[in-house]
Structure formats: structure tokens, C-alpha cells
Amino acid sequence: MPCPRAHDDPPPCDRENRFGPPTAVKDLVARRPVTVRGRLGGVETLVGAHGPTFEAELFDTTGSVVLVFFGRRSIPGLVPGVALEARGTPRAHRGRTEILNPLYELLAPPGDAEPTRSARDPRSDP
Fold first, then answer.
1. Whole-angstrom distance, CA of residue 58 vs CA of residue 21
2. Is the residue at 43 inside a domain?
3. Other CB atoms within 10 A of residue 89 CB
4. What DSSP string runs through 84-118?
5. What is d(CA 87, CA 14) in angstroms, rounded to the nearest whole number?
6. pTM of the entire predicted model
7. What is the CATH number of the domain that holds 57?
8. 3-class SS at 26?
């Protein structure tokens, strides 16, 4: 079990605090390590020639970023509506902003607030 830490302390995997304090999605810059916080909207598993990829779209009040996990079909706890903090290096790819294989920490379960859904999720239509 990890030792408790103050919410503003960097996690044990980031002792150098290279990702910094949380950044708004609209302010992400490609190839600059960041910390982002938000809720997951849609999640999706893609299977291609190189194996499965699990994608989860993280929303904050300013926009969204896609968290991409290679070699995974699912990740326990990463479901629509869950609040989390992710750390990684964003990139622009296929007209969207992605963070590949980010470090992440679950902050609140999905039941704590109304889930935000991706625009690509047909369940978001009225």
C-alpha cells in the first residue's frame, strides 16, 4: 500500500516533480511534460496489426486529451466518469492531443459526479 501524501506533493514515481502542477488541457504544449486533471469521458479499445490499444478521453473545463495505453484492452478503474490525474508528455497526432502510456492516479470514483461523455459517444446525444 503506498504511503499517504499531501495532494500537492509529487507522487513517488515523480520525485523530481518534472511534470509540475496541473495544467489546463487548453494550455498543453507538445513535447512538454505535464500533469492534467479531469474526468474520463468515452473509453475505447482498438485492435490493430500491432496489438490492442486502450484509449480514454480525459476532460477538464477547457477541453480534452486522449490517454493512450498500448498493449491493453482495458484498465481496471478507468471507466467513464472517474476523476483522475495523469502525467505524461502530450503530442499532436491525427488532429487530436494524446498522452501515450501516462502515469495516472484515480482521484474519485464515477459516482461522485455526473460523467462527462465524449462527443464521439452516441449516448451523449439528447
1. 17
2. yes
3. 18
4. EEEEE-EEEETTEEEEES-EEEEEE-GGGSPPP--
5. 9
6. 0.75
7. 2.40.50.140
8. helix
